[in-house]
C-alpha cells in the first residue's frame, strides 16, 4: 500500500549539488578546505574550521562508526509505514564529519554505538542516489 | 580563544518577580495563543495588584507563525510600551525575557515589564479531525530539503533520542531511570489541580507505553498543550509595596551550542553546563544551595542530563541520582513540582518559571510546598536543541 507513496526525495541546496552529483556516481565526497585540509558537513561555501572560501569536494573513505542511533516506531510519514521499526544513525566518518543515515541489512536490535560501518548507495531514481551504510 | 567570563553581580537582587499566573492549561479549544497569553497576563496583573497601565515593557516569544508578536500583545493590553520585543530562542526564550527585563529596568529603559508565552498547540494539532489531518499531512515542501527526510528522520523526539542513546552507551543509563522521571513528575501533577494529566503513572505503565522513537516511548515525551504563562518584573524597590511577597532574581546565564546538537559532545554535555556556571557565578551560589529545580523537560532524558550539567551529580551519575527518588517532593532535590511539561502542560519553559516563583512564595498547601525552599533553579532549552538559559530565584 504505502509503497505507492514515494519517500521524500532530496532537493539539493545549491551548495550541496556536488555532494549529490558524486553520490550519483556512488562516491561519497565532502567539502575539504584547501587551506586547513579539514573536511566538513553539511556542505557550505565557507570552511567552518578556518572560514576559508578556498575548498573543493574530495572523496572520503566512506568508512566510519556509529556515534549514536534511534529507532523509529512511530510512522511520521506514510511512505515509511512498511519500514518501522527502522534505524536512523549518526555516522562519524573517519575523516571527522558526522552525518545522518540508515543502516542497511540489519534489524534494529543488532545496532550498537561504536560499530564500524561503510557507505553503500541506494539509487532513488535516475537523478539521485542516497548514501547509506552497512556494518563491516 | 575566547576568555572566560565572569557575569556581573551588579544585577543580582536588583529586580523581582511580583506577579505570576497561567491561563487554563491543557485542552482549551476555541482560544487563540494570543488570547491564552492575555488570560495569563490579566491573571498575573491581578496577582501583583497592578493595572495594564502600570506596564511599560513587553517581552515574549511569539508563536512561530506570528510576526512581531509583542506588538499584537501590547495592542491587546491597550498600552504603549517603552521596551518591547519578541525572542526566537525557542524554549530558552522565556528565561531570556526575564533577564532582558532585569537589564532594561536596571539601566532605566523601563519600570515594569511583563514576560510571557502562550501557545495553542493542542488545538492546532488535536482538537478536531481536520486539525489532526492538517498536522499529519504537511506537504513535502515544508520538510528539510536534504540530509534528514530521505532517511525517515523527522521531529524533535528523534533529535533528543540520539542524546539518550549516547548517554546510555557511555554511562549505562537505563529506561528505568528515564521512567522514574516520568513517574515522579506525574505524581507531582496529581497534586496540582490545574495539571493536564489526572491519572497515576506507574513504572509498569511507563514500560507498557508504546515506543515512539526508541529509546523514547510515549511517557518520555512532553505534552502537546494549549497553555500560557506570564510573570511581571519590576525593581526591588517598587516590589516592596505590592500585593504578594516579591521573589528576587539572583542570577541568570546563557549558552548556545550553535556548532550543533550533533557536534562535539553537545548531546550529552549540554549547554546547561556553561549557562548554569554563569548563573551560579552571578548569584554567588552553587548547586548545593538549590532547594528546588524546575528543569526544561521536553523529554525525560533531558532532565537527567541537565541535572548532571548543573552539578547536582557527576556526569554519568544522573541515572542513579534520579532513581534514588531525589526528584520527588520530599526528596533531595524536588524537581518540576507542578508536574512539568511531561504531566502539567508544555509551555516552552514558561510554566517552569511560574512554578519557581510560586515555590519561593511559600503560599502552597503543605503537600505541594518544597519545605524551607529559599533558592530555585530554572532551566530553558530549545531552538534546534542548542539554546539554553538558566534562572536562579530566591526568597526575598
Summarize the structure.
The complex is a heterodimer of chains A (136) and B (396). Chain A is mostly beta strands and 136 residues long.
Structural class of chain B: alpha/beta
CATH superfamily of chain B, by name, is Thiolase/Chalcone synthase
Strand residue percentage of chain B: 15-25%
Q: Rg of chain A, please?
A: 16 Å
Please, could you describe this protein's structure?
The complex is a heterodimer of chains A (136) and B (396). Chain A is mainly beta and 136 residues long. The N and C termini of chain A lie far apart (33 Å). Chain A has a five-stranded mixed β-barrel. In chain B, 35% of the residues lie in helices and 18% in strands. The mean pLDDT of chain B is 95. Chains A and B meet through β3, β4 and β5 of A and α6 and β5 of B.
Features:
heterodimer, A: mainly beta, 5-stranded mixed β-barrel, B: 396 residues, alpha/beta, Peroxisomal Thiolase, Chain A, domain 1, 9-stranded mixed beta sheet, two-stranded antiparallel sheet, 14 helices
Give a topology summary.
The complex is a heterodimer of chains A (136) and B (396).
Chain A (H helix, E strand, L loop, with lengths): L16 H8 L4 E5 L21 E5 L3 E10 L13 E8 L4 E7 L11 E8 L5 E7 L1
Parallel strand pairs in A: 5-7
Antiparallel strand pairs in A: 1-2, 3-4, 3-6, 4-5, 6-7
Chain B lengths: L14 E8 L10 H16 L8 E4 L8 H9 L5 E4 L6 H14 L5 E9 H6 L2 H8 L18 H17 L3 H15 L13 H6 L2 E4 L1 E2 L8 E10 H4 L7 E10 L15 H12 L8 E3 L5 H10 L8 H6 L16 H4 L6 H12 L13 E8 L4 E9 L1
Parallel strand pairs in B: 2-3, 2-4, 9-10
Antiparallel strand pairs in B: 1-7, 1-8, 4-7, 5-6, 8-11, 10-11
Helix pairs in contact in B: 7-11
